Amino acid sequence: MAEVSYRRSNVLAVVDQLFVQGTLDGLLAAGEVSSLVDTTFVVVDLETTGGAPDGGGITEIGAVRVRGGEELGILATLVNPGQPIPPFITVLTGITEAMVVPAPPIEEVLPPFLEFLKGAVLVAHNAPYDVGFLKAACAKFGYTWPNPRVLDTAALARRVLIRDEVPNRKLGTLAAHFRTPRQPTHRALDDALATVDVLHAMIGRLGSHNVTTIDDAIEFAKAVTPTQRRKRHLAEGLPHVPGVYIFRAADGRPLYVGTSVDIATRVRSYFTAAEKRARISEMLNAAEKVDAVECAHGLEAEIRELRLIAAHAPPYNRRSKFPERVVWLKLTDEAYPRLSVVRALAEGDTAYLGPFKSRRAAELAAAAVHDAIPLRQCTLRLSTKTTTPACALAELGKCAAPCEHKISQEAYEETAAAPFRAATTGDPGVVVDALMGRISVLSDAHRYEDAATVRGRLAAVLRAAVRMQRLFGLTTIAELVAARRAGDGGWELAIVRQGRLAAAGNSPPRVHPRATINVLRATAETVLPGHGPVPSATAEETERILSWLERPDTRLVEASTGWASPVRGAARYRELLRKAEAQG
């Protein structure tokens, strides 16, 4: 065992000696083993001037490198903090200013300490305090903090020992409880050695908690619930690949569906202290199994997740639970058309806006259209032969009174119906200009609340128009093949038909992707054209595909027809929409 006295030269010598003996190289390799017996620990304790971690203030460092119960090296030195030591700190630790004046400053101690720490798990009692000072010093003097795994013996004691055993989790209390041969003295090396003994004593009790690896020990020290600890075996044996995971109840019912680029890692995170959601805790209590659906890449995983949620409506999924529940705002097919909120589109519907997630959103867009163009708002079916008494809107001059035949069918089509048709599939300028003019008039009259109401309606109709025209651009293409470079040098491939993902796959590196594309095309799902902007998939699925296609690194390989948007379409108002939504 290499030991160092409180002199600068010996601080460097301990690391040199470890290298000469070849010990450190062996430890680095052993650091990859996760069992507690084979894990290399560096147990650290600091003495400080008592201030906040600002890069200075450290008066002493003590560190012990251990593995398998054997001490492999010790690094200990006084440190010149570059600031006065408060009298109460001197009383507590016995470290005086005269002792630290000849000691090296922290910027000279950090390099050998970081070498000593390399490849090991850092252990400290109340670790956030010591780690905070070390990280601040590294940041101040330009050293890269290696971000080691950290095990806090104080936190571990809170999980291992019950209140009846010890009154608190102070280092001195724990050392006395375990009757360790070395007791803390408020000096760095003595406290580090005492922490080593306490660590070994607690490791001896972890076996009864089924904690045998360093990863388990670090998670065990955190605030993991009994349910998470009891059920974490559900994460075992899952693949490290992109895909979908399904938590199932004892009867096989899907409880929760999620997606990840690494199924095993994501599922394991549900059993760590980072997972604090109450509904997930409830779900884990009911879960008895986790199934994995491997996917070619992230896009396929996202789409499969959406489809599984839509098919099974898992009780613990909140988003995208009922993607089929949408409504549309359509122009009715009659002599004097009006707007109607419907749940589905028919083959004969030619002018419509949507889909909307709620009836309220559709009605808000309808209010915007009525503010901008003189579409009638009554719900009667009007006759071209007989008249119907007019309502109050006609008397107020807000309706052309087609019910009383005060406007011809041709004039009504030109002034009311045609602008709506244009706004849905082409240029919504007539609607936008009318609403912007109304906002300006209301603002000039200091009717700011009314202006805000109209602004909200403008955002609703623009949002729907931008979304629908964007969807139309993709769903009208019978087949589109796209590729995106994968991390291993190959290609992520997708075949999209009518806005629906029909096939997905991977082309291996250094192999032309054409062969894989041909196989995917031959085995892809047959997708028939339908009616509306999302005839073959949900709007959410098509939008996920659009987001993937619009990434800068995605390449379009083939398309049966051109992918385009209207030249003067709703997309040119994106900035206006952004401002309206921000102000709302």
UniProtKB/TrEMBL annotation:
InterPro entries: DnaQ, GIY-YIG_endonuc, GIY-YIG_endonuc_sf, GIY-YIG_UvrC_Cho, Ribonucl_H, RNaseH-like_sf, RNaseH_sf, UvrABC_protein_C. One of its GO terms (biological process) is nucleotide-excision repair. It holds the Pfam family RNase_T. Keywords: Exonuclease, Hydrolase, Nuclease. Residues 240-318 form the GIY-YIG domain. SUPFAM superfamilies: GIY-YIG endonuclease, Ribonuclease H-like. GO terms for molecular function: DNA binding; DNA-directed DNA polymerase activity; exonuclease activity. GO terms for cellular component: excinuclease repair complex. This is DNA polymerase-3 subunit epsilon.
